[in-house]
Amino acid sequence: MHPYLIPLLTFAAAAAVFTITPGLDTAMTLRTATTSGWKAGLAAVVGICLGLGIWGLAAAFGLTALLAASETAFTVVKWAGALYLAWLGIGLILHPRTSLGTADAVPVQADARAAFRRGLLTNLLNPKVGIFYMTFMPQFIPPHVNVKEFSLLLTAIQALLSFSWLALLVVLTVPLGRFLSSATVVRRMDRLTGSIFLAFSLKLALSRRA
Predict the structure, then answer these.
(1) What is the pTM of this model?
(2) How many Cα atoms occupy the beta-carbon half-sphere of 131 within 13 Å?
(3) Is there a contact between 100 and 186 (Cβ–Cβ < 8 Å)?
(4) Which of 14, 46, 92, 175 lies in the 20 to 30 Å Cα band around 8?
């Protein structure tokens, strides 16, 4: 058995648990897929996974150590993320969409770009993701390996798991498309998601460095 197989499998199992645990990424993926369609949903998933990859890359090169060491850096990123989530949440609550496919609806391509941007920013503006990579991944890095290369491998595994799980959630919304695209469901989904975003905004604002 390859000496690195056990650490990789152990990390994959632990990362899978974190991945399937409902959180902000799950809420954003489901809301986007149910109200904007599967293409926008997948675009959001790609944005989320790219954000995870960037944080993992930063962790591999030690950049996120700044967040762990500097109270100012952590606070700046934390409040930027909290305000961004609050802005998204308030917008969804006050101005929920009532239908899909209307004459003034956002074009599919533009909607997908917006979904990708939201997925990316919600991860990049969450310093807890960076701290997670800095504190969680090193536990699975065996001795006598190239730390950067192994960290990037673990990041790739995490991103692949996240993409697989979130993409599955998008696929599962397709059979329910007609029901989920009704005016009442769209409006309630937007307001529910807005409330969840506000809750995560408050949680992020109150968070402290580990």
Answers:
(1) 0.75
(2) 19
(3) yes
(4) 46
